[in-house]
Amino acid sequence: MTDKTLSPKALRQRDQYRWSALGFIAPGVLIVAVLLYLPLLWTTFLSLTEYNGLGDPEWTGLANYVEMFDDPGFIGSVLNTLLWVGGTLLVPVGIGLGVALLTWNLKGGTWLRLPFLIPYALSGIGVGVIWSFILSGDGALDQALAAFGIADTPRWLVDAPLNTVVMILATAWQGVGVNALLFTIGLQSIPREPLEAARMDGANGMRLFRSILWPMLRPLTAVVVGLSIVASLKTFDIVQGMTKGGPGRDSETLALTMYKETFVNSEYGLGSAIAVFLTVVTLIASILYLRQQLSSKHGV
């Protein structure tokens, strides 16, 4: 229906609805613009300047990006971040799925999952403090091993890449519970009829998982894996709490490198360049993953 076919009253009502809709949308758009887009634009601008937080930024073009890629410490941060992505997908997501499969159909399964969920209430720094107490030199783990006659223990938080591996395990301790909870919700939403039909056909154990449970969990798994990828790319707090990126820069992640360059070294331009790089990598990883999931869905 065109404007010419509408009565004057209908046109006025349409305009009123349009302005009302804009009035509801405007606050949200303004908040997103102020809190997301403007800081992103400012960070992108700073990445093209030399700025120490005082005075005016000095335009340097792509110099910060050249310096960033020439820095061996930055390359190490990229490799550590990739290790975090792989470890976060394999350990907390995999164990969370296993816990959900073992407890979702058990009487009292909620109580069995509860101990796994409690650590999720802790902050990343809190988890770092707890595991630093356990893994530090002559810490709780070393003393426990010494009680069994094992004196020559690894330097858990000193030797690379062992320090990154044990921090991934600490993160898994925190994240297994929420992944198990999400997978349990997905399992409980599966209709009983296909499960009963599969069991009548003799499907149990791994065969039931491959033929019924896993295909029906794929939409939820896509969400869990996507969230894990984004979270691992932004890893900061637990590394800062346990090793501060050390020794040297051996366990730094991209987020921690960005923090140090910006707020410790007062290299706001270089820190902003790392922030832009991390943002682009996160967006590309998210888009590629979502496209792969959508293509798989349409291909089924």
From TrEMBL:
One of its GO terms (cellular component) is plasma membrane. Keywords: Cell membrane, Membrane, Transmembrane, Transmembrane helix, Transport. The chain crosses the membrane at residues 21-42, 82-104, 116-134, 165-187, 208-233, 268-290. The keyword Methyltransferase does not apply. Its main location: membrane. It is a multi-pass membrane protein. One of its GO terms (biological process) is transmembrane transport. Pfam families: BPD_transp_1. SUPFAM superfamilies: MetI-like. It comes from the Bacteria. It is found in: Cell membrane. Residues 78-289 form the ABC transmembrane type-1 domain. Belongs to the binding-protein-dependent transport system permease family. This is Carbohydrate ABC transporter membrane protein 1, CUT1 family. It comes from Glycomyces sambucus.
